[in-house]
Each structure stands twice: as structure tokens, then as C-alpha cells.
Amino acid sequence: MSYRIGFLGPEATFTHLAVSKFFHAQTEQIPYATIPACMDAVAGGDVDFAIVPLENAIEGSVNLTVDYLVHEQPLHIVGELVVPINQHLMVHPSRASSWRDLEKIISHSHAIAQCHRYLHKEFPKAEHSHAASTGAAARHISLNPHENAAVIANEMASEVYGLTIVERDIHDYHYNHTLFAILHPSMNEKPPTLPGFEGKDKTTIMVTLPSDQAGTLHQVLSAFSWRKLNMSKIESRPMKTGLGNYFFLIDLEHAMDGILIPGAISELEALGCGVKVLGSYKAFFA
Ligand SMILES: O=C(O)C(=O)Cc1ccccc1
């Protein structure tokens, strides 16, 4: 069977690079212009899996993905792809000799954030303009050479859209990886990743706390701790119902089992917490 893989496009985004590293070339790979459009596509059955950015080592979570998953489109995480990220500055070839006069930098907000120090030092006066993806920024400037702008994107984008790289590896920290989520409507679906990648077990749980009960977060943490369930991340995001109301996303370095994780979940529910398992899956590293 040929799988249909939806990804944050257009061609040559970092998400596309992740898809080409982990999925067979014979899968059908379909670009979507935005993260929500890509997630809607898998929810509606237009594609078999959706691949979207979830977290970056320098800039943290991709809030649009997290919030759309929690508030709008209740999909499950069925896998994760971790990919090294190299950000390059590129311009239309007609500006290759005058690129230092640029007035504007266009890219995905995360790509701009990953290069803040460089941009502040080298182009303190340049305007920053956000695009839906690095690939969309590169395509835009290839079609609009009259704009005195540079784009931050990857090498594949410079080739696909015919741009000239004028400065390489401009991300502020050497260790720059992004984690992409593989999403599907049902939790137990296995993504058809290429063989040869070793995956690490992970389970992601969303927890809401009962209101006005002192110490519940401490009790939540101890439900995992005394079972020796290793928590690799806890993050809070606004519930969007008012200041001070949050949900928590918790990553465990364990696969779902029949005893420990269900036991911890029952304990949280007994405390009055809301609990939802977003997924139990393998994280694959490129
Ligand atoms: O815009 C892209 O190319 C994406 O795939 C999202 C993204 C942006 C910056 C770093 C990693 C992923």
C-alpha cells in the first residue's frame, strides 16, 4: 500500500526534509500551507499521517501545533522524528553582491528566533517578517525579487527556489534539532517509517488540575516519581479560559504498559485531575 503523508509545506521546508529522511520515496508526500491545514487533512482522512514541527531545541515548543492539538483537532502522536537543523541566509541571485544592504528578513518565526543573536548583531535595523514556513519564505522571495529581503531557510530550499546562500549556519547555538510529530486520529496506528532507525519509547500525557486545591501539581509529580516513571518534560500552556488556568503536557520515557502508567493515571484522576494520553510511540533520531 502506498501511504499518503501530509507535511507542512511547500517543498523544501524542514518538515519536508524530515519526511524525506524517514519515509520511503514511494510514499505520496503532500504539502500543506499551514500546520492546521495539515492536521485537518489527516483528521478528515485526506492523508494517512500528518507531519508537523512540535519542538525546537533552541526556541522550545511550536505553540501553534500544541494548541491546535489540544484545543481544535484532537489527534494522537504516533511517532516523533528528531532532525538536525542548519539555518542559512539566502537572497535572490540578483542581490547576491548587495545582500548586506538588506532591509527585511523573512522566515518562519522559529527560524528567525533560532538566529536572533546573529540578526541583532549583523542586521539590527532589518524588519522581521513571519511566513508560514521557511519554504514559503524562500518561494516568496524567488517570485518577488524586487523586495530587498533575505530569507532564512535550509540548503534544499536554496536549490529548489534558485536562491543564493550568502551566509551559512547562522543559528545561534551549535546544537539545533527540531522534533516533528507524526499525527493520526487513532492512538495505536504505527507510521510506516523506513527500517534502520532506532526509536526510543515515549508517552505524552495531558493533565489539567482541579481548581483551588493546594499541592496537586506536587502530587501529580510524585505519582510518576514513586513508580520510577522517568519524566523527560513538563510544560504548561494556557487553557485560554482566563489568566492562571493552565494544562500540563508531560513526557515519560516509557512505552504505555498495563500497570505503571495506567496506575499513575488512575491516581491523578482520583486527585480530581483531567488526564488524556496524547500518544505512546517511538521517537526516531536522524
Ligand atoms: O518552516 C519550516 O521549514 C518548518 O518545517 C518549520 C520549522 C521552522 C524552523 C525550524 C524547524 C522547523
Automatic annotation (TrEMBL):
Keywords: Amino-acid biosynthesis, Aromatic amino acid biosynthesis, Lyase, Phenylalanine biosynthesis. The keyword Amino-acid biosynthesis applies. Transmembrane segments: none annotated. The record marks 178 as: Essential for prephenate dehydratase activity. Pathway: Amino-acid biosynthesis; L-phenylalanine biosynthesis; phenylpyruvate from prephenate: step 1/1. GO terms for cellular component: cytoplasm. Residues 205-282 form the ACT domain. Its EC number is 4.2.1.51. One of its GO terms (molecular function) is prephenate dehydratase activity. This is Prephenate dehydratase. It comes from Metabacillus mangrovi.
